[in-house]
């Protein structure tokens, strides 16, 4: 492959990235704009052009899977020698290599989780927090360590950062201090300490720094908006004052600031490196124009100078669907029906995702999908290659590979082995049995794909081991249930964003302007996961019969308006759902209404209203009677503002009553006929007069 061959097929901006082979370079890459393609072709072009040796390149990203994808793409481009690793994997490799030489003895053991050590730390100070509290304390310690805050400085640093620790700051300090003491005494390192020690060894031992800098001369850092101060410290130590650095990121996808990540290194790159080339990627190849348009409109109101408005490159698709439900179970059942319709229409369930703000929201969808017989996967639970059935299968396959004959056929052999541990021709109905079956079926499908390429059983086992090391799970049939944070970096044909209410998105704990803006970006991330089908929904109450006091997310203000007929054409509205009305304008002066009370009235508070005062009094008397009969407060039936709106509009049809903001199908069914009768009677009296 010639150097110019690497540039073939790139769009103008991607080509500009690929040709900027010397640093410093900053690539601002919007969602779905092909940033991985751009940076891998840049590396390959630099190597093919003789600018740098492949072995001198260190490409750093945030997940093992992303690093594996970088390596795979570079191999396809004929550049197999490039090191593509996570920050932690690269640092651990260096620390382990140099430890015996500069420290002496065996390197420390890496702990995957802080919880076991934290439990011992609790015992040492006679503290007994519950499991969820321990996880939150562990998160606080991680934040402190990545922001380079020691135990003694935690309380003041947390106060300045506006953090709300799960226990008093003094207790976090004591646990943090005890945790660090135990970690050092037991010769252990956590992920943050790996980075810290690697930077310290390079700083204190010039020969180590010289050797590492001699090895790595050319740096690429992906997802640069998620870099935290500790990672930036290590990166600067690796660079040692050099500037052959290319960073790639999207400030609109900064959603991890609570962990210590900060976009300021990305947005301030040209200040830190005045000679830097800054290139923007805005052509979106992932999503339809309809999805891209909504994503752009969500960011239109954001308080940021780096909005990166996307330009869709795909053909038209369906309009996003907005749906309102009376309660969460109704919302989950409605989503299950929509998923079933998509699946019946040919969309694989593995290409469908339901995304929510917090993991606790998944339960009602698990129940609805189980009831509907829809397979699902809960992302963020156990990793694919750590599932018991997958581990058992890999052990059996590894043993079979050692004794395999040359003429053994891959697919039949794998099917036979997997059948012995639960793979059946037909899928079980649901639950754990279905989850196990889906895992085994994914392995069988992967074997069939490799067999079609001429692979044998040893090659299949090697492929499984490679995928396990990179956490690259094969596609498993089933709808993905995931939090918005866990969905970052992924994409599906169809995405359902659920629970999109104020108090959940933005989350109730988001109080400062910066926190609110991060919640807006989280919604943007969710929207841009969808390739073609996108639905956003919310429930007015948590449980059936509960108080319907919720309102759609403020981030959707002005975005949900479409003719009702078009909404129904995209996704038929079941009994418990209604299409969201267009942005409400004053029927008198045509000004857009913002206040909830004004939207309900359909006019500005200061605009004159013409209504039948007698009708309003009869409506209030009727409401009082119903409240006494049903033993509920009057506002549960209709608020005063709603009665005022009814009196002003005098609705006589279902469509007229549903047009009043806040009145849904349930209240229509319960009170509609009585309201229509009162309004018709008022009209008759007016005509008679």
From TrEMBL:
The enzyme class is: isomerase
Superkingdom of this entry's organism? Bacteria
Fetch the InterPro entries from UniProt: DExx_box_DNA_helicase_dom_sf, DNA_helicase_UvrD-like_C, DNA_helicase_UvrD/REP, HRDC-like_sf, HRDC_dom, HRDC_dom_sf, P-loop_NTPase, UvrD-like_ATP-bd
Write down the EC number: 5.6.2.4
Which residues of the sequence carry a binding annotation for ATP?
29-36
Q: Which reaction equation describes what this protein catalyses?
A: Couples ATP hydrolysis with the unwinding of duplex DNA by translocating in the 3'-5' direction; ATP + H2O = ADP + phosphate + H(+)
HRDC domain location is: 609-689
**Which Gene Ontology molecular function entries are recorded, alphabetically?**
3'-5' DNA helicase activity; ATP binding; ATP hydrolysis activity; DNA binding
Q: Which UniProt keywords apply?
A: ATP-binding, Helicase, Hydrolase, Isomerase, Nucleotide-binding
Q: Name one Pfam family in it.
A: UvrD_C
- UniProt GO cellular component terms: cytosol; DNA helicase complex
Q: Which GO terms describe its biological process?
A: recombinational repair
Which residues are in the UvrD-like helicase C-terminal domain?
A: 289-598
Q: Where is the composition biased (Basic and acidic residues)?
A: 563-576
The residue ranges of the UvrD-like helicase ATP-binding domain are 8-288
Region annotation Disordered: residue ranges?
Answer: 543-576
Q: Which family does it belong to?
A: Belongs to the helicase family. UvrD subfamily.
- Listed name of the protein: DNA 3'-5' helicase
């Amino acid at each position: 492959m010639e150097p110019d061959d690497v540039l073939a097929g790139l769009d103008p901006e991607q080509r500009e990235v690929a040709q900027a082979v010397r640093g410093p370079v900053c690539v601002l890459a919007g969602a779905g704009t092909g940033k991985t393609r751009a940076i891998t072709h840049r590396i390959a072009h630099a190597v093919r052009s003789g600018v740098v040796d492949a072995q001198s390149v260190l490409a750093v990203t945030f997940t093992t899977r992303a690093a594996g994808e970088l390596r795979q793409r570079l191999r396809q481009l004929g550049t197999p020698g490039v090191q593509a690793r996570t920050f932690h994997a690269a640092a651990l490799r260096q620390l382990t290599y140099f430890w015996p030489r500069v420290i002496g003895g065996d390197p420390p053991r890496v702990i995957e989780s802080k919880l076991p050590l934290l439990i011992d730390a609790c015992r040492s100070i006679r503290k007994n927090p519950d499991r969820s509290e321990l996880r939150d304390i562990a998160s606080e310690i991680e934040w402190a360590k990545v922001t380079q805050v020691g135990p003694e400085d935690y309380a003041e640093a947390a106060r300045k950062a506006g953090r709300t620790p799960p226990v008093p700051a003094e207790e976090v300090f004591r646990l943090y201090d005890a945790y660090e003491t135990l970690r050092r005494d037991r010769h252990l390192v956590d992920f943050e300490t790996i980075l810290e020690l690697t930077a310290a060894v390079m700083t204190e031992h010039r020969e180590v720094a010289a050797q590492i800098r001699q090895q790595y001369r050319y740096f690429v850092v992906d997802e640069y908006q998620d870099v935290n101060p500790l990672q930036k410290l290590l990166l600067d130590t690796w660079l040692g004052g050099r500037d052959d650095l290319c960073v790639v990121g999207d400030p609109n996808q900064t959603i991890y600031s609570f962990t210590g990540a900060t976009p300021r290194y990305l947005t301030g790159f040209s200040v830190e490196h005045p000679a830097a080339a800054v290139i923007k990627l805005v052509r979106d190849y992932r999503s339809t124009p309809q999805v891209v348009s909504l994503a752009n409109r969500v960011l239109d109101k954001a308080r940021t100078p780096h909005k990166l408005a996307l330009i869709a490159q795909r053909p038209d698709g369906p309009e996003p669907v907005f749906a309102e439900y009376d309660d969460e179970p109704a919302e989950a059942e409605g989503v299950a029906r929509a998923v079933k319709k998509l699946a019946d229409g040919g969309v694989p369930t593995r290409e469908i995702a339901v995304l929510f703000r917090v993991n606790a929201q998944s339960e009602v969808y698990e129940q609805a999908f189980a009831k509907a017989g829809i397979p699902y996967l809960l992302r963020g639970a156990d990793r694919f290659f750590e599932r018991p059935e997958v581990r058992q299968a890999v052990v059996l396959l590894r043993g079979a590979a050692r004794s395999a004959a040359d003429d053994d056929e891959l697919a039949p052999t794998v099917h036979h082995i997997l059948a012995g541990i639960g793979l059946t021709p037909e899928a079980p109905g649901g639950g754990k049995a279905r989850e196990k079956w889906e895992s085994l079926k994914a392995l069988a499908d992967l074997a069939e794909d490799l067999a079609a390429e001429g692979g044998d059983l040893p090659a299949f086992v090697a492929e499984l081991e490679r995928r396990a090391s990179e956490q690259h799970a094969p596609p498993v049939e089933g709808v993905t249930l995931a939090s918005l944070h866990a969905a970052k970096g992924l994409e599906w044909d169809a995405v359902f964003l659920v629970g999109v209410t104020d108090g959940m998105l933005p989350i109730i704990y988001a109080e400062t302007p910066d926190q609110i803006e991060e919640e807006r970006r989280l919604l943007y991330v969710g929207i841009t996961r969808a390739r073609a089908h996108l639905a956003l929904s919310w429930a007015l109450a948590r449980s059936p019969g509960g108080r319907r006091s919720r309102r759609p997310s403020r981030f959707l203000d002005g975005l949900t308006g479409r003719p009702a007929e078009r909404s129904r054409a995209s996704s038929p509205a079941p009994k418990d759902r209604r299409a969201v009305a267009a942005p409400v304008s004053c029927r008198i002066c045509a000004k857009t209404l913002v206040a909830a009370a004004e939207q309900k009235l359909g006019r500005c508070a200061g605009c004159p209203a013409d209504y039948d005062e007698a009708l309003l009094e009869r409506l209030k008397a009727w409401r009082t009677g119903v409240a006494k009969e049903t033993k509920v407060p009057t506002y549960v039936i209709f608020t005063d503002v709603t009665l005022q709106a009814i009196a002003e509009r005098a609705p006589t049809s279902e469509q007229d009553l549903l047009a009043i903001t806040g009145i849904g199908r349930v209240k229509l069914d319960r009170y509609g006929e009585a309201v229509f009768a009162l309004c018709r009677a008022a009209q008759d009296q007016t005509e008679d007069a």
